[in-house]
Every structure is written in C-alpha cells, then in structure tokens.
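The authors assume throughout that readers already know how a fold can be written as discrete tokens. For illustration, here is how one protein appears when written out as sequence plus structure tokens:
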Amino acid sequence: MQIRALAWWGSDRIVLSGSAAWELRSWPEGLVVDAGEGLAVPRPAGARWAVATPVAVEVDGVRHPFPRLVQTRSGCWWRDGVCVVRTDPRGGEPVSEIWWVTGAQGPVRLLTAPQRSRFFSVTAMGEDLFVKLYTDSDSHTAHTVRMLRLRGVDDAVDAVPELSGSVHQVVTTSEHRRAALWSEDPNLTQHVLVEGDNGWETLTPELRVAGPCQSIDDRQLLIPAYDGIRIGMIRLRLADFSWRWALRDAAASYFPFAVNLEGEVAALRRPVDGCQTLVSVTDATTDDVVSLPGHSVVPARVQRWSGPTGPLEGLLVTPPGPGPWPLVIDVHGGPNHELLAGFEHELGRWRRAGFAALAPEYAAAGIGGSRRRSSAWMNSGPPRTDPNVEDVASAIAAPATRAIASNVFLFGWSWGGFVVNRLVTTGTAYGAAACWEGSADHRIMDVRAGGEPFRRARWGTPTQNPDAWERASPVSRAAAVRTPMLLLYGEDGCPEQGEAWYSALSDAGVPVELWIYPGGHMPAPHVVDEIYLRAAAWFRRWNGTGDRDR
C-alpha cells in the first residue's frame, strides 16, 4: 500500500490510507490495530467510524448499499453524518455526486454535479461543507479547480467567486478572515492568498504549496510546502499571516501529515535512501514512532548544482563500483512537481542496467520560483532560452555531473520527452537520446485536441501566431540535431508526433528509430518495461560509438 493520507481517530489512533486500502494504528506505539479495503473515514473526535467502497458505505457498523458500483474518491464527517464523493467515469464525461450517510438513515444524495464536472474532495468546516470541483476544458477554456460551499441539498455556491483562476482550498480564521490556496491555472504552482482590508493578497510569491493545509489550533495553520525537490512544513499565524518553516530536511520529504484536535502532528517521513517512518512532529523536531519497512524507494541521493538563476536539485543513483559511468539524464514528465525526494521513481531501472542516472528538476515543475515557472510553462522562445532546457543543460554541465559521467545520454518521458526534444535541437551532441511520447510538433497536438486551450491562451491559434507554434516545435529545427534519437510512442497516444519527428530527423540525416507500442500515453506495465529495456539497449549501442562530430 502506498500511503497517500493520514487521519486521526481521536488522539490515540491514526489511519494510514492508500488508494483503496487502510491501516489503523495505535498512537504513539504505532502498532497495527485493524486494516481493510476501501476508504476509511474516521471522525476526528473519535468514537464514530465509516468505511466506503464502490458498492456500499458502512457507518458505525451499519451497512448502506449504493444503487450502483461507482468509484469512491473522498469522504469526511459533516454535521451528524459522513459525506462521500463518488465519481462515475463511464461514457467519457465524468458525473460526480455526494452522498450523506448517518448511522440511522440510508444515503441521502446532496448534490449531483453538471455532466462536465467532477468532484475531487469534500472538507467540513463548522456548518459548511466545501467541495473541490474540477471543470473540464474545451478549445476555448482551460480546465480549472474551484471550491464550492455546500449549504444544503442541491444548494452550492462558489466559495470565493471574486477570485479567478483555480482555488484549491479555503480556510476561514477565528477572526472571520480567510486564506486560500490558489493558482493561476491548475497546473501552475499553488500559493497562499490572504484576505485583507484591500482584497486578496499573495502571502509570499515564492512559497510553493504542496497540498492542503490543516489547522493546528484557532491561531495557526500547518501547510506543506516545496523546498527544492523536498516537501517540508510551514506554520502560518492567522492573526497577522506571518509564517516560518516548521520542518525541513536536506534528504527527506514529510508528506502526508495530520493534526489532531489537540494540536499533535503526525507525519510520514520519506527519506531518499531508506524506509519510510511514521513520526511525531514537535515544532522543528521529530521523534520516530514506527518504521514502515514495506514502504521504501530505490536508494538515491539529492544532487545539487548552480542553475542559471539559482540553486537546483535532482535525484542521483549510481551502480556499484567506482566511476565514472555512462550517465542517463532522466527528465521526468508531468511536469507538476513529479520529482520528489522520498517518492517513487524509475531510476533503479538504469542502475540495474549498469548506468548512473540523474533526474534533474526543471523550471516548469516550479523549482525556480513562480515567475520562472510561468516563463517555462508553454514556452515558445528559441530552445536555448527555454528555462526548462537551460535547467537540464546546467545539470549536465555541473562539475559534480562531469566528474561521474563517461558519456551522457538523454531520456525523457512525456513533457520531459518534449524538453529532451528541444534540448537536442540546440545543436549540442550527446551520446544518444530516447523519448516516450515527447511532443515534436504542437500544431499536430492542436488539431488532435480540436484546439489546445493552454497553448492557445498563451500563443493564440496557429493561424494567428504561426511563428510561436513554429519556434516551439522541435521538428522545425531537426537540422540542428547531432544526437542519435530513439522515438517511442503509443498507438492510442499521439503517434503522429513520432511520425512527423521521425520524418524530419531522417531528412536531416540523423540516426533515428521509431517504435509504436500498444496502448496510449500511460502504457501498461509490460510496455513500460519494454520502453526502458529498449532505451538502455539504444544507449549501449551508441556508448562510445556515436558520431559526435557529425
């Protein structure tokens, strides 16, 4: 079970939840008391308990079946019952609904979303129920995240209609002032906004929020925040909205966490090089409660270097024995904070194949701050001035990287594949490169999507601003490529991108292979295995034999 959430049940028990399973542990002993499948929803004050599955919800031992099998996403206690979010993804248009269940009554449907909407989560705050809503996009409007305040059956209003963009959480303080987690669009960095006498203001532009905040007491909030590629915690004083780091670690992330009604904090410590640990957090210190030996990642270390505008970080793994080694620069997809210390990664695949591997963080994921990320998001400038390309290139050029690399290979996944495609068009020669579903011609993507809203919002349509679409598409600079290219695409993803890129590279005389795999953009596990094996074989083929002066 991959732990995704923590929740208190009273002050002496805590729930560890995965996507469809849970464990109940004693506190502070950390012993397993109970476990099961489904979504566990403990009442924070203790005593009452619920478990929701796709077919039923059990409240205080009373089972209430649902009329049909539908995915259960989230739940919370509200007033005298438990609210459960259920989403039906069938038919291509997700339909969400919220059911309210008490121990004595059957389910009561509170709200059914519009057809082009889906609910992510529900959160109770006093008498109000807040619903996190995701709206889908079309060719004219990008999708957004909004918070609704549910006042009764089929009676929901936007919690902060005066804020444009995406609102991920709203908190009302004891002084009736409000704070919100907000982003320009759902793919960009979340920030803390506070409501002052002159409207909403950003608390600190460079503070990057990593998830929902929780109340410590009536005076403070605990907020997860990104610290390089790690997640730490900040404390926010509600009286004056001042903040400070409460917990940060050079080689670990702390996520998720939970605060009980007495203000005690439990968190999951995720080190880069060992087992996860459930810890008790007191101010800036932690005490281990119990090690979770079944929850660990491939050992790595945090690698740091100086980027174009400041310090950058990544994860590094090396094979046994002395270096230098052939090095794979593994550029992650997403790109929204997909590379995190202590979380799952694929770098062990390269280690087992005899390669060292460095996964660098880059601007579009947020590490350089919100302004740099905004510039990197859908960047249409020349590749050498693309902040994403600059950051990855700086990782390759760093002295610590050069010291361990006998040759440098590039591997990119999805958005990372696009970054690699742009990087090779700068004219710098690398040992070889491999890309999974990397965009090569954004105009193809725009046609397939019937109008791609995010790029159109920044560039205009391909007809209105053809130069931007041309500059941002690697196919337009195929003649500059001096790196052998392995192109990997899904037949239900966007194989036209691969075909266009293959044609342009072939015409430019670049050594290139194109492989189309069954499935779509998110391939099956056996396809993922094949992708990495083929990429490793491609890199071995060109290790020391690539024509670097072509």
